[in-house]
Predict the structure.
Amino acid sequence: MTDTSNKADFSEVQITVVPVTAFQQNCSIVWNKNTRKAVVVDPGGDVDQILAALKELDVVVEHILITHGHIDHIGGATELAETLGIKIIGPHKADRPLIERVEEQAKQFGLASVRKVEPDQWLEDGDTVTAGGVEFDVLHCPGHAPGHVVFFNRDMKLAISGDVLFAGSVGRTDLPGGDHATLISSIKEKMLPLGDDVTFLPGHGPASTIGEEKKTNPFLK
C-alpha cells in the first residue's frame, strides 16, 4: 500500500503527498475531509500507487491539475484521467511544445508506459481553480518551463509550486524552454511577495516557507 503518511493539515483541507517515479516527484492529493472531494496535482507516473492512495483516503477525484509539462509531472496524467473519467487542467499554453513531446521525453528516460497528454483546459495568470473545495489562484511563473504555473491559496497561506522554488534551491533551467533570469524574476515578482509566512510545497523534496528561503536560499541572495 502506498505510504500516505506525508500529509499536511489545513483544517478541512488535507494534502497527501505521494512521491512517484525514479524522480521522486511530489504528486499531491488535495482533498476535503468533510466532502471527500479531491484533486490530483502532477501525477507524474506510478498511477497504481496514486490510485491506491486515493482508495485509502476514500476520496472522489474531481480533476487533475498540472503545474508544467515535464514528464515527471504529467507522465501518468492521461492514464489517471481515463481511469477516473476526469479532466486534465493546466498548465499555461506556453508549455504546449513540451507536452507535445512527452512521448519523446519518455523514450529518452526509458518510460514505456507514458502516453500523449491533451489538457482539457489551459490556464492563464489570474485564473482560479478549485482543489479540496477551495479556490487557488493561478500564478504564471515561467523560467523552469515556459508555461509553468503555481497554485496559491491565500487563506491557507499555501502554494503548490512545482519546480519553481525548492528548499535551498530553485528549478533547473538547462532543459528546453528554461531560462535562469526568467526563473529568478518569476520567484522575486510572483512568489516572494506572497508573504514570509506562506508555506510552499515543491515538486521535489520537502516543503519550506517563503521567509526561510528569503533568508537562506543561496540563489535568492
About this structure: The chain has seven helices and 15 strands. Residues 1-5 have pLDDT under 50 and may be disordered.
